[in-house]
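ESCALATION

Customer reports they have been waiting on this structure for their group meeting. Please prioritize. Original submission:
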Amino acid sequence: MNSRKSEIRNPKSEIPTLIPGFHGVRETLVQGGNAVREIWISSGKRSGRADEILRMAKERHIPVSFKEPAELSRRLPGVVHQGIVAVVEAFTHANLDRITEGALQSGGYGLLLVADHITDQGNLGAIIRTAAFFGTHGVIIPEDRSARVDSAMLKRSAGAYAHIRVAKVVNIGRTLDLLAKQGFWIIGTSGEASTSIYRFDWRRHVALVLGNEQKGLSRPARKSCHEIVSIPSHGAIESLNVSVAAGAVLSEIIRQRTS
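Update from on-call: job pushed to the front of the queue and completed.
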């Protein structure tokens, strides 16, 4: 137990407290997981979406401020904020112990998703949204050489971050070895693997590992895997974006477990 705790970071976060975009703001208001302190709306913005956010904020007694579009763009450089922003309490990473215990005690098979040095914020956001859609018990990311959970990523997840726990660990290889000792099968994904996702039996506790966009699985992660699987291609394209691949694999896992 003590060795596992050495892999867990203090969950205090450096993540910005701005959630941009209609979908991200709406999901945050609906979920209420992170307390919303204030809503910012671009001055002069009149649309059905803005009216819906205003109504939801009023129902929850959340103050609304109207900001100049240039100020929103300055606060969120490079992010398409759609003129709607939620100011929330700081995002906090979950405790790895709680994620694994929740997965093992869920009453079925545990399912964790491990992002092995995914560097694109859009990809990480889409992966978190996909993981939430398929009901995984948590997402694990490394501290170094990984996309940060920032405003751009939170926008891409379209509020899904509020529905799933995300843990940050120091060392992916050691974390996977510890998960294996707890009873998880460590299953990696790679295009050159001979085992198809459709032939593998997913009815067991699984930690699914997705590799880096360019380099694939890291050496420590690959070494920790019990099995590496691939998605068979039936067309002219040989590979998929990592977030799309995550959806394909998770869909097959859920299909097998519920059929």
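Sent to customer with the following note: The radius of gyration is 19 Å.
Escalation resolved.
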